[in-house]
Amino acid sequence: MSSPEPRHSRVRAEVARRAEDLWAVACTLHADPETAFAEHRAVALLTGELERAGFEVRRNVADLPTAFTALSGQGRPTVALLLEYDALPGLGHACGHNLIAAAGLGAALVVDALWHSAEGSVLAVGTPAEEGGGGKALEVRAGVFDDVDAALMFHPGVYDWVRAPLTAQEQYRVGFRGRAAHPTGNPTEGIDALAALIELFNVLSALHRRLPEGSHVQGIVTQGGTATNIVPDYAEGRFGLRALTTAALDDLAARLRTAAEGVARATGTSVEVERVGVRYEHFRDSQVLSERFADHLARAGIALTPPEPGVYLGSSDIGNVSGRVPAIHPFVAIMDSGGSDHTPEFAAAAASERGRHVLTAVVEALACTALDVLGDADLRARAWDAHAAGDGS
Questions:
Q1: Measured between alpha carbons, how far is 43 from 49 in angstroms, rounded to an integer?
Q2: pLDDT tens, residue by residue, 208-218
């Protein structure tokens, strides 16, 4: 195994002692779901647990009212345990973030209880609004991870995968401006902005056939005119872009802009192309650390495998963190592979007996991995060397 057996035994005992309380936290969050940037009761619950354990809590991190950090220890090395707690509108915790929050909390508390060196810190990071708001990306931008040596979390899912195949994604607003006219009274004076937007959809449809694996553009019309008897002078669409890597996403965004500008020239309109929201970078797995986590989790009877080739599971703002520090984001199944997250069935699984078993196993594996990071300089060096070399990118 990867680290001394006495440490494993102490972690196992500490997790067992806290298991009921951690499950209660997971169930409380599950029963009281809060959506992106409105997770006030979740933050109060989690920070209360950390403060009672003696962590130094900072609220309103990155100017986000539901973001926080909680620090125990001093100086480097520093290992971060990430907590997600936002729910989905209308579906509650159908992505299992209640389990992510309880796992990060539990691992932080266990590491705090067992790490007795004069040097080194454990940092619990409360990360709001993973579902579209990009809390982690904003925290990265604010420097939350600047002095961190590793960022650890897990995600419940329908697969047992050692790493997360998460793509890069962003959204763009494209607005065409033309000239209004009556379609029967003075049709030649009109410049149809909606026709330009529709033509952009046609161009992008043709472009799809030439895009690399994992890249796609999905668009909707958000504004298409005000009346059927007026040639629209303004039309707007929103386009979601995804790509396997952040560099490929930049290339795809450039293609969107080129296509929009070409349509504008051809139709006599003008066009504005603007990124909206937060960009999610692709996830860069720290193989050094994710394999260490998998070794620890195997003791609980959960074997993690590489992801299936060609299967991608969306995007997450953990990608932005993984571009800054070595990071892990394994998937651990709480229901069978025939299911899917973002469903009522997955929400139920996040409060099931299987979810409870996974929570306990993951807290132990996360805590062991975090202690390895704190106590093993060679492990940290190998993780950083691989990160600098772009391994996992």
A1: 10
A2: 989 998 899 99
Are 305 and 229 spatial neighbours (Cβ–Cβ below 8 Å)? no
Q: DSSP letters along 306-357, please?
A: PPPTT------THHHHHTTS-EE--EEESS-TT--SSSHHHHHHTTSHHHHH
Query: Measuring CA to CA, how many Å separate 166 from each of 137, 281, 283, 301, 324?
Result: 15, 9, 5, 25, 16
The per-residue DSSP string of 247-295 comes to: HHHHHHHHHHHHHHHHHHHHHT-EEEEEEEEEEEPPP---HHHHHHHHH
Cβ atoms within 10 A of the Cβ of 3, count? 18
Q: What is the maximum span of the chain, computed from C-alpha positions, in angstroms?
A: 87
Condensed to tens digits (0 to 9), the pLDDT of residues 245-301 reads 999 999 999 999 999 999 999 999 999 999 999 999 999 999 999 999 999 999 999
Confirm whether pTM is higher than 0.85.
yes
Give the CA distances from residue 316 to residues 130, 186, 217, in Å, rounded to whole numbers and listed in that order.
7, 50, 17
- The model's confidence at residue 312, banded by pLDDT at 50, 70 and 90, is confident
d(CA 172, CA 257): 10
Q: Would you place residue 2 in the very low, low, confident or very high pLDDT band (cuts 50, 70, 90)?
A: very low
